[in-house]
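Support request, please re-run this one:
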Amino acid sequence: MKKKLLIAGDSFAADWTKKYKGVCGWVNMLENDFEVTNIAQAGVSEYKIYKQLESVDVSKFDYII
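Re-run finished. Output below.
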C-alpha cells in the first residue's frame, strides 16, 4: 500500500499537467511511489499556502511537503 503524501505550495509544487498536456513535473513523478494529493496553486503567497493546509485534515497523510 502506498503512503499518502500531501503537497501544498505555490507554482513550484503545482501540477502543471492540468493546464499543459504532456508535461511531467517532479510532483507527478512522486505518484509512482506515493498516493499524492496536490493542493498547490501557482501564484499564491505564504498566507494562501497556510490556508491550503487549513483546508485539509493533515492527520490523514503520512507525509506533507
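Strands lie at 3-7, 34-38, 63-64. The CA atoms of residues 3 and 34 lie 5 Å apart.
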